[in-house]
Amino acid sequence: MPLLHLIILSKRPFSSGKAYKSIWNKELDESPLLTITRDQTNAIAAVIQDRFGDQVEVDFCMRYGNPSTQSRVRKLVASGCTRILFFPLYPQHAGATSATANDAFFRALMQEKQQPTARVVGAYYDDPAYIEALGRSVERAYAQINERPDILVVSYHGMPIRYREEGDPYHDQCQRTTELLQQRLGWDDCEITTTFQSVFGPEEWLKPYTVKEVARLAREDGKTKIAVIAPAFSADCIETLEEINQEIRESFEAAGGRQFTYIPCLNDDAAHINALSDIISANLKGWVD
């Protein structure tokens, strides 16, 4: 039985218990990332079931946290799985995200005496259906706002500039996603901009930094109404629900901003689920009919 493996990974550990507490899913006593990932998996499983019947099983694991990559691989091999399609749910490829997810997957396979055939899904930063899903999410959000934002800030997870200099494609793929989103929306350059968040440590990171740029937009450019979207995250997590919607919002408002709209990640939105399911179907060719 071919198995599709869906992976959502934490980008980095957070030491702030207060930050986690502010976004915690108290009803299920779990992180919103886990809740959303499960919802995504169930939604994709329904689509894949409709397309391929019982030929494909859909599951998920996490690079940091549970269910772990190793535990899922072990379970699947023990159940007789002979083919695994491994899908890191990072639209843009980075050595610190997609690559480490793949590393964890192959390390898990190394522990198995009976190894299934494996495929890995690549980056989908320019996939037309993914861009369409992003475009629709922006249009829905703008339709619900009384005063149109002056600019859309497209905020991506940051990384040290050194990584780009060493050949990491992440920065260029982020810029391309923004370009394609702008084309999909039919907007002018002044209506959209790219920034990078989650900066930490002593190194210089990709710029402009989101937390500083939103303040500059309000203070220097007079853009007091903004919207922020985070296309690098396939599911809302601490970097979006806490960092963007709390810390970055506070920076903007302290600089004179008066309207801040956070546009949620695509999560289990139907257009997103269909986009991911199409990518999965394409990568299953030759394995299932």
UniProtKB/TrEMBL annotation:
Main EC class the enzyme belongs to: lyase
GO molecular function, one term: metal ion binding
Entries under Gene3D superfamilies matching the protein: 3.40.50.1400
CDD domains: Ferrochelatase_C, Ferrochelatase_N
Entry's Gene Ontology BP terms: heme biosynthetic process
EC number in record: 4.99.1.1
Pfam families reported for this sequence: Ferrochelatase (PF00762)
Known pathway: Porphyrin-containing compound metabolism; protoheme biosynthesis
Keyword annotations of the record: Cytoplasm, Heme biosynthesis, Iron, Lyase, Metal-binding, Porphyrin biosynthesis
Full protein name: Ferrochelatase, protoheme ferro-lyase
Lineage of origin: unclassified sequences, metagenomes, ecological metagenomes
